[in-house]
Amino acid sequence: MKHLVALLCLCATPALADDFSAGSDAQSWGLPGERPARFTAKVVDVLCTLTGDCPGACGGGARQLGLLRSADDALILPNKNAEPFTGAVVDLLPHCGGMVEVDGLMIEDPAIGAHNIYAVQKLRPAGAADWTNATRWVANWAKANPQAPDDGAWFRNDPRINAMIGATGYLGLGLETDATYLKELFP
Predict the structure, then answer these.
(1) Which residues in the chain land under pLDDT 50?
(2) CA within 20 to 30 Å of 94's CA: 72, 120, 121, 125, which one?
(3) pLDDT tens across 108-126, in order?
């Protein structure tokens, strides 16, 4: 796994030298190392691109998708969309294998090991006039979880997340560890 991460970092290295902020309307999140970035790219299945393991339709949403940037063939990893705690796969999947123009934030912060972390805020097919906000994830989640309450953030109502917290605690280290931590944090 660490070799795959190193390979991914090497694939995306050209972004360090280029400025893709021209024409970007990306909204700042106030993150260290964030830069607006707008560019055209091919939507690809990252594992397929790196290994040749290529199921149809980019894995149907079960795979991490990437952006093979046209300007320099850098493989950019869009691990975030414009919604809280959601990824970009749902927004990119309809464009699998196609060219898109994306606008968002590239995050580079060597102090925390962040390299070419990209947050897609909006996208459109290459050459199209109208942008689409990268906000499809929560609507898709709501359709898949009709029994979940619709008040508050999706992640507070997700049955899978709540089951994991119930079994292993908020820290994932067990309920006893959570109880000890909370007593120390809030005496």
Answers:
(1) 1-17
(2) 72
(3) 888 888 877 899 999 999 9
Residue 159, both tokens: 């049955």
Provide the terminal-to-terminal Cα distance of the chain, rounded to the nearest Å: 40
Q: What is the CATH number of the domain that holds 107?
A: 2.40.50
Per residue, the 3-state secondary structure of 92-154, as one string, reads HHHHCCCEEEEEEEEEEEHHHCEEEEEEEEEEEECCCCCCEECCHHHHHHHHHCCCCCCCCCH
The answer to whether the CB of 138 falls within 8 A of the CB of 82 is: no
Segments forming the whole domain that contains residue 63: 2-139
Token pair of 183 as six digits? 């007593």
Pair 113, 42 in one domain: yes
| Structure-block tokens of residue 142 | 């709501």
